[in-house]
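Supplementary Methods. Inverse-folding protocol.

Structures were first reduced to a discrete structure-token string of length 431. This string, shown here, constituted the complete conditioning input.
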């Protein structure tokens, strides 16, 4: 806990937003007597809020410009979420030489480049620990504690909503649609869960982590993104039988040719991977560094107090710097400006799980084998489970490690054969 030295002035904070995270931040800051929350920006003054007693009515304002323009405020904390008005307010605050703490992954992943450039010009810092995986201290761990490492891989379960749904599908053997509805009813999924289930939320997060680990900027629209909408309980159970677990994975790895393989998609991961034991609403991030080896951080990726823990930690980090020298330490200012070269998904190397519905007649398996062989896709395992009432067979295949475009070529050819009724699913397997 930071406490006051009587010779030092209190650091004044302005908070943009007093929703779930903002309320948590106020609770966390009420323990620190060196920090004064001068103003809290809200949309509606009359809304009932459970704020700590130190926050009296006069602290609340609906005039958010008044916070970013207040000459007495040292640190602006943005917990509004979304792009606007957060982007405009943060930009104004930086121009007014205020340090920024934000929990906003959309903002950092989409407009980080312009905000970091501006912050560098103004000699202020942007801290954003809470923007990725709520309470898990991954950003500052990469930036500081592990800064002596050269990173080769980051792999994570970066979205709690989808991890909750996949866990429910595994435990209850129920459909994606049913588990999503239950998650919404219980408040684990938002009423509009599009960004979560489509993988977009995880794409923002892996883009932020990769930019730190590899010291290069990532264009968010270059991150290959696939959600969990097409996953069925059959895929989840077959993964288990084959020694894997199905998870929505965000992955970023550096190639020998210095390109970054960055993507979000459902994947089979080995049950021995520590991420396979991350269940429910939890998040997990596995990092591989040349010095530290592999390490995994697991914890709550959202929620009032876990997210507030990261926001308040960032505020403390800034307070520790500016209350001594008045200036931020250069190590904490983003220095990289070039953009990463991204490896296209078609060039990525994976194993593949395929579920194919075919006619039940002689020669079908041979036909599939011929097409895979012709496209240089080597099969590791193949099973056929009985025959359905509609007289079709469901064939399950696991390939060896191969370039994605070869599998895509094989799939395109398979789709043209009359005996194949449907490619039911194709899921990457990360070895
Ligand atoms: N909606 C996110 C999740 C939390 O479900 O993990 C905020 O990024």
């Amino acid at each position: 806990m930071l406490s006051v030295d009587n010779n030092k002035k209190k650091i004044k904070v302005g908070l943009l937003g007093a929703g779930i995270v903002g309320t948590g931040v106020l609770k966390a800051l009420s323990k620190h007597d060196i920090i004064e929350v001068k103003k809290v920006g809200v949309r509606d003054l009359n809304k009932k809020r459970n704020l700590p007693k130190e926050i009296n009515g006069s602290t609340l304002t609906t005039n958010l410009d008044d916070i970013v323009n207040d000459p007495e405020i040292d640190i602006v904390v943005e917990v509004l979420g979304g792009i606007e008005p957060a982007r405009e307010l943060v930009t104004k605050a930086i121009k007014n030489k205020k340090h920024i703490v934000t929990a906003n992954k959309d903002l950092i992943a989409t407009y980080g480049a312009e905000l970091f450039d501006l912050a560098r010009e103004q000699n202020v810092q942007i801290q954003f620990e809470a923007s990725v995986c709520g309470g898990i201290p991954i950003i500052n761990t990469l930036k500081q504690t592990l800064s002596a490492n050269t990173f080769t891989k980051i792999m994570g379960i970066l979205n709690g909503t989808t991890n909750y749904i996949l866990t429910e599908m595994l435990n209850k053997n129920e459909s994606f649609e049913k588990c999503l509805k239950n998650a919404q009813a219980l408040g684990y999924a938002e009423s509009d869960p599009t960004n979560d289930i489509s993988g977009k939320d995880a794409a923002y997060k892996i883009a932020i982590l990769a930019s730190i680990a590899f010291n290069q900027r990532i264009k968010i629209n270059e991150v290959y993104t696939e959600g969990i909408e097409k996953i069925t309980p059959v895929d989840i159970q077959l993964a288990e039988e084959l020694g894997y677990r199905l998870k929505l994975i965000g992955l970023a790895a550096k190639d020998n040719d210095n390109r970054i393989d960055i993507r979000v998609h459902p994947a089979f991961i080995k049950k021995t991977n520590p991420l396979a034991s991350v269940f429910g609403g939890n998040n997990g991030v596995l990092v591989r560094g040349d010095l530290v080896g592999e390490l995994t951080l697991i914890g709550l990726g959202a929620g009032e107090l876990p997210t507030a823990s990261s926001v308040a930690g960032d505020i403390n980090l800034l307070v520790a710097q500016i209350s001594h020298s008045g200036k931020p330490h250069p190590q904490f200012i983003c220095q990289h400006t070039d953009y990463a070269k991204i490896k296209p998904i078609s060039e990525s190397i994976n194993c593949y799980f395929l579920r194919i519905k075919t006619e039940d007649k002689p020669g079908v398996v041979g036909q599939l084998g011929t097409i895979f062989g012709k496209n240089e896709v080597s099969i590791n395992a193949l099973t056929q489970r009985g025959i359905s009432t509609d007289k079709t067979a469901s064939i399950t295949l696991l390939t060896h490690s191969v370039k994605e475009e070869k599998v895509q070529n094989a799939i395109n050819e398979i789709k043209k054969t009359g005996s194949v009724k449907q490619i039911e699913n194709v899921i990457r397997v990360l070895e």
